[in-house]
Amino acid sequence: MPHVLFYTVWCLTAAFGAGVITRQLIDWAKSRGVLDIPNARSSHTRVTPRGGGLAIVAVVVIAAFTAMILNPESFKPIAGMILPAISIAAISWLDDVHTLNNRTRFSVHLLCAAAATAVLGPVQRIDLGSFGELDLGVAAWPLTMLWIVGLTNAFNFMDGVDGIAGITALAAGITLAAASWAFGATAVGAVAAAMAAAALGFLTWNWQPARIFMGDVGSAFLGFLIAVLPLAVGAEAKPRVVPVAVFVMWPFIFDTGFTILRRLRNRENIFQAHRSHLYQRLAIAGWSHRAVSALYGALAAMAGAIGVAPLFDPSLRQSADQAAVWTVGIGMLLLLGLRK
């Protein structure tokens, strides 16, 4: 485990830095007209600056380069995840400002996913705990690409009410930091911890009522980074850390998957803005943004704790696997049952 005092200071600095930068971005976005104008499909009712995710990007990128300097042997894994992530942030910022077409954004997502997979290596095996092990074989590359591009877009789709993306990134960052440290990947864990802290700093201005929105620059960056962080922990640890990442992100993955399948069934354009996500239906039903975000954050945090526990205490593996099944099952029924 890393030195507690060092990483306490590390996280406090990241959180404070993100909070300060986000506050400055509020005034900057207003002065430049980088604003989110409410429409019929919006979950908010007032004009709000967007692009606050730039603060998260800045803090995480600084943390990543600092980690590489302090731990030179981590250069390849950290560069393999942060450089493509910067490209994702860049194209997403252009989309925030100028609105790019879906083909352009998706092409960049594919290229960045391919670059990260080439450097970090695809997911060859998935350790399912007491349920056995899954060997992906020839499907390793396409499934790794699907995981990265899918989560990048799912995270973006889910950033629709105040605080939901930030609180989920907080839970995922803490989970992946702990998982990385469990396998001795301290530099990768440092980046994950900085991401969690930056999300917390951003949340001070994004919690309902939000003073600024994350924008695609933040949501796509976070989705991509959460997807590639488990690939950077090393070949031996990857089969066990990837399932933890999938598990902590299950509320976003389930909501996105369920909504896409339902819209395809209804022959709707899945890339067109809408208000049919489960979290949006909760808001329409009268739930406050705080309540919706807290629910999704709690589900992610619970999953993260269950996923990480057996990495530190192998004797918990079987009970953790059973708890995971019950958590996801009950959670899905809860989300489906509460919607209108």
Task: Characterise the protein shown here.
It is built from 13 helices and 4 strands. About 70% of the residues lie in helices and about 5% in strands. It is mainly alpha-helical and about 350 residues long. Helix 2 (about 55-70) runs parallel beside helix 8, helix 6 (about 165-180) packs parallel to helix 12 and helix 10 (about 250-265) packs across helix 13 (about 315-340). The chain has helices spanning about 5-30, 55-70, 75-100, 100-120, 140-160, 165-180, 185-205, 215-230, 240-250, 250-265, 280-285, 290-310, 315-340; strands at about 35, 50, 125, 135. The chain has one domain (about 5-250). The strands form 2 sheets. A two-stranded antiparallel sheet has the order 1-2. It has a two-stranded antiparallel ribbon with strand order 3-4. About 50% of the residues are buried. A hairpin with a 5-residue loop joins strand 3 and strand 4. The chain is globular, with a radius of gyration of 19 Å.
